[in-house]
Amino acid sequence: MTRKPLIAGNWKMNNTIAQAVVLAQEVSNLFERDWADAVDVAVCPPYVDLKPVKTVFEFDKTPVSVGAQNVYWEPSGAYTGEISIPMLKDIGCRYCIVGHSERRTLFHETNEDVNDKVRALFADKVQPVHPIVCVGESLAVRDEGTCLEFVDAQVRAAFAGTDEVDAKDAVVAYEPVWAIGTGRTATPEQAQEVCAAIRATLAELFGAECADGMRVLYGGSMNEGNADLLLAQPDIDGGLIGGASLKAGSFVEIVKAAL
Question: Which of 102, 109, 175, 224 is catalytic?
Answer without folding.
Answer: 175
